[in-house]
Amino acid sequence: MDEFIINNKKIKEINDIDGIWEGLEIILENNESIICKIDNIRHYGKPYGFYIYEDNFDKKKFINSEINKVSIIYNNYDYDNDNDDNDCEITIETSVGNITIILFNEYIGYPSRNISIQIIDKCFLKSF
Question: Which residue ranges make up each domain of the chain?
């Protein structure tokens, strides 16, 4: 798990990303960003995408909230335990609650999707 402590950063807006990438962009008040996305270029018939873990996610609730910490957990394919999913869970702890973003891709025998996570000035690119 990767963890990032972020102090004195407020959320300015939250936008969906659509195009060759799908995901979420959280823009901070100083125009820095937290971006979580998965590519949608390769189509092999297996489920993939992203979702917000909370039911009835309300973006407006988080506007002007302060971010405290961002945690990233990677869950990779595990043949021995019959787990055929790859996913990445990004939890953004704020002053009004958590935003949990799941990027997922069902395993099809070889890496088939890229994910990209940008936490302000740090960027991670991973295939799964």
Answer: 2-127
